[in-house]
Amino acid sequence: MYIIFAAISLAVLGLALGFLLGAASRYFKVEENPLIDEIEKMMPGSQCGQCAYPGCRPAAEALVAGEAPPTLCPPGGKALAERLANKLSIELDLSTMGDQVPMVARIDESLCIGCARCIKLCPTDALVGAPKMIHAVVADACIACAKCVEVCPTECLKMHPVKVNLRLWRWPKPEETALAGA
Amino acid sequence: MFDIHALWAGKPFDLHALWNGSQPKIRGGVHPEPRKEATADRPIDTAFPLPPMLYLALQQHVGKPAEPVVNVGDRVLKGQLLAVSQGMVSAPIHAPTSGTITDIMDYPSAHPSALPTPTLLLEPDGEERWIDLPEKADPFSLSPEEISIRVGAAGIVGLGGAAFPSAVKLNLGRRTKIQTLLINGGECEPYLTCDDRLMRERARAIVDGILIMLHGLGCRQAIVGIEDNKLEAYTNMHAAAAELSDGKVEVVAVPSFYPMGWDKQLIGYLTAKEVPADGRATDVGVLMHNVGTAYAVQQAIRHGKPLISRIVTVSGGAVGAPRNIDAPLGTPLASLLAHCDYRPEETVRYIMGGPMMGEALPHPNVPLVKGACGILALTQEEISATDAKSCIRCSRCVTACPVGLLPLEMMARIRAGQLESSLKFGLKDCISCGSCSYVCPSEIPLVHYFKYANGELLTRDQANHKAEQTKRLADEKLARLERQKQEAAAAAAQRKAAAKKPKITEAAA
Predict the structure, then answer these.
(1) Residue B178 CB burial class (10 angstroms; 0-12, 13-18, ≥19)
(2) With an 8 Å Cβ cutoff, is B477 touching chain A?
(3) What is the pLDDT of residues B285-318, one digit of tens each?
(4) CATH number for the domain whose boundaries are A103-161
(5) Does the CB of B248 have a partner CB in chain A at under 8 Å?
(6) Is the ipTM of this complex over 0.90?
(7) Which fold does the domain A34-98 belong to in CATH?
């Protein structure tokens, strides 16, 4: 008998609270700029924190508020910067991004103790391995966020510039001479 | 369209043809000094001594690099398969001579950056022992599919410079049922005479190769386009075609100007069809191969010999005895130049290919690859070395562009960093022929700007692709964590239930 009273009263309570929550979410809704959602969708979404914001959404908010330049996202690179600037219709100054060399994490296998701390932190699952086994980096998936470098107890994880090979080599921009003004 | 090149060659202006529209269509083009006389009248040098080491890059073609099937220390015979092709678009590599594989390492590549690339090192033993060549069969009794399979297995790629695997092209041509096979004997680049010499000396083999390709394509007609400044080549090819081909192969003289050898230009001139901007030659029922490729096909199908050597023009002001050499692939360019008495101290620029479209090399210690039709050592007098000046909007580059683009407008946009906007002006259609840079009175390196922009756009495309991939990986990681959480919760619940059970049984007992 008591169990039925308990069940009914809890069910009624639950329904009433649920209704209250539902009503609150509808009537006390905070209006947010829909642009933030759109910008967030354009971001890599790995919450790596290289932009100095806690994640992609705070970064999107800062962008929409005009507090951050469109070049803030290192994993997105120039391509994302260009799309962000287009979306927000703001001036784009790529000069700050020009000299960034693409980096990739690499493990010094003689030092890795297989602690698996880096594996848990990697936002893109670019680190593979198991406890007490030597880990490895999947270079294609690495976004060079360097989170693993901070956590590695033996400093075996380091960021290295990506080695240029024939596939990655590109023609440089022709040098501007003093005469080629106009 | 008014054919300015006919006037240049001193021919009478054909007003009637202009009126009724039968004048072949030619757009743009320039007339650089041919500078071919240094090598055109010397026979192909077939007595090039084997160098002490051959460097065989695993990627000498468009597509995926080949995968080695030999180990360090293996003794190999001439013509033996060393590396197999990977995937749909690729080409195998064969041993140019007999000897020992001494290493598989990164070696400077024949590329403007000369960056190291995986390379097989073959030390010749000087015996030149061939593998057992297959028994000779009549090529015309083979099925068309078998022809392209054998062409692919022989490692043949476009020898005009593009280095695109020929078997892929043959397959495409057969599937799309092309009507005409065009053979490119244009050789419009200055200095280069390797196709010219090949047509003069081995015309019958070339025509035989063309007939084999026709059989492989299931096609009935071939047209060979030869520039009208190569009289002897034209005469020899004409005679060979008349004797061997039973009217299937037609040899046509085309006006001499640059870039007559560009496939869309030659197709437009010979068939009066225009290939769409984003299309291929097969879209208008045409397939094009180079004369050198036709010769290589003949060697592969008639004699079973894979592509292990090519004819290459060694020329330029700093070369004492310029000539064409039949050289094994993998020969260091420096030994080819040394064989022709070149003067390194006078050389200010090394070029692989022709001076218009070829690539400048930082040094000649890189190996000969399948697509290299020329090696030039140029002196200070032969190259322009003045600084770029302002664009005066004279629009000579517009007149010269064979594609019909506006090079000056594209250049201005790229300089200002507006790469997207240069795409709207047809950047992707630029063939990097160099006509615009050649005519520019301000000496602006227009093609360099276009190559830079294309590379930069490619990098951005790749970055976009990587961003999408990152997003996917991050989402998958979140989904996995969520799943693990649920699984852990489910497992905990199960354990709880399992822990409870014994009690109940006890109570029941």
Answers:
(1) buried
(2) yes
(3) 999 999 999 999 999 999 999 999 999 999 999 9
(4) 3.30.70.20
(5) no
(6) no
(7) 3-methyladenine DNA Glycosylase II; Chain A, domain 3 (1.10.15)
